[in-house]
Amino acid sequence: xxxxxxxxxxxxxxxxxxxxxxxxxxxxxxxxxxxxxxxxxxxxxxxxxxxxxxxxxxxxxxxxxxxxxxxxxxxxxxxxxxxxxxxxxxxxxxxxxxxxxxxxxxxxxxxxxxxxxxxxxxxxxxxxxxxxxxxxxxxxxxxxxxxxxxxxxxxxxxxxxxxxxxxxxxxxxxxxxxxxxxxxxxxxxxxxxxxxxxxxxxxxxxxxxxxxxxxxxxxxxxxxxxxxxxxxxxxxxxxxxxxxxxxxxxxxxxxxxxxxxxxxxxxxxxxxxxxxxxxxxxxxxxxxxxxxxx
Length: 294
Known about the structure:
There is one protein chain. By secondary structure, the chain is of the alpha/beta class. It has two domains: 11-233, TIM Barrel (Alpha-Beta Barrel), CATH 3.20.20.60; 238-290. Helices cover 46% and strands 16% of the residues. The chain contains twelve helices and ten strands. The strands form two sheets. Strands 1-2-3-4-5-6-7-8 form an eight-stranded parallel barrel, surrounded by six helices. A two-stranded antiparallel sheet has the order 9-10. A hairpin with a 2-residue loop joins β9 (262-264) and β10. α2 (47-60) packs parallel to α3 (80-90) and α11 crosses α12 (271-290). It starts with 10 loop residues before the first strand and ends with a helix.
């Protein structure tokens, strides 16, 4: 299945690649996408076994409509090249590259994926988590047609920036919005970083709202308890859906009368508003078809 920028990616849950029970449990979770992690979540002594476990799980399937990505270790590490080779053979929906910070990194990954026989449908996702990567985001985005998703690595980025962890994330806003601008310019998806205090449901809910207000398509998650709040926040509510339908109807009626604009509730509705409303309904319908993700 080729990349669909409008498919739901509200909740993107990291799963430790060394935990067989977690990989099995993920098949019943309502996350839109899963990142089976071979990097940060796996101790050095477990990385080879985790690689086999994750790739076997991907080949076996059973994850329903969930999008599946494998996060490999960096190609400059002892594990990265074999991670990439095995991931290409397993053929997930995507391979997530840590610390993407140059076009050459993406180009090398793309070339190796071809050499290793990855299907054309296997995407590259890029972790945007270093200052250099943020500065080079446009070049990174242009480096490969396989590259479809930016994943913000806000923990690493905050450390590199020596930023204070504030509620409003003011130190990270320039990097977040820059990557969003690049993603939207190239028809890509942008996923916000994790919220570490997974037991703080109120704080997490506020962070989801901030992410949605900024324009992100969803968030990466570290715990299944975060899924429901995330899915609800990044889905249009009933009022928004009803308004979108009303905008489309008003604009189509105006067009039928030979007019270029409509007026709805005292506000002008132009073609751009109608198109945005149609896109919103496509996303809404895609979310509905996800169901529980089974």
